[in-house]
User: Fold this.
Amino acid sequence: MEPIKHYVMVIDLRLCIGCDTCSVACKQENNLPEGVWWTRVIRVNMDGANGADDGHSERKLEHLPLGCQHCANGPCVEVCPTSATYRTSDGLVMQDPSLCIGCRYCTIVCPFTGVRVYASEQPTYALPFPTGDNPMVHRARTTEKCTFCTHRLEQGKLPACIDACPLKARTFGDLNDPDSEVSRLLHKRPHFRLLVEKGTEPSVYYLT
Assistant:
């Protein structure tokens, strides 16, 4: 039997320059409506190493790409009353829009603010034609989020944000494969995950 995979995304914060190419690539690939983003880059003004703005410390702009963390133990799956939110065998947290009733329980229990979007009205588009290869239909009163481009994975491709990143700050692969690039990076580089104290076991790792 083929071994179970655990897909994860590794983001190198040393390489990320906050250019938003990942966000735009995601929007184009998934034909996202106006005002809808499945991945964003959070920007925070940080002071110098001592944490104080004394007029002499160098200031720098920190970039934190943020999307669904595809948690291995996320509560969103358990609270969904229609099973619209579910977890695949390879660790992806997916949402079936045909089953979603817009209750937003998944959003309420998710500890990561802003990784899901909800359209209260029928979505509108800037272009008169669809873009990208994701056939997903976007509807009103439906919750959506990043899918790790599962439609591309099924074709042997990488998620759109991975291919689009100009500095190759993102890496995607199977954490259960010790020879994969993600395993190699996490073995040799210091890293962290967001809100690990919540016990959700996120599948997005940030290299420092």
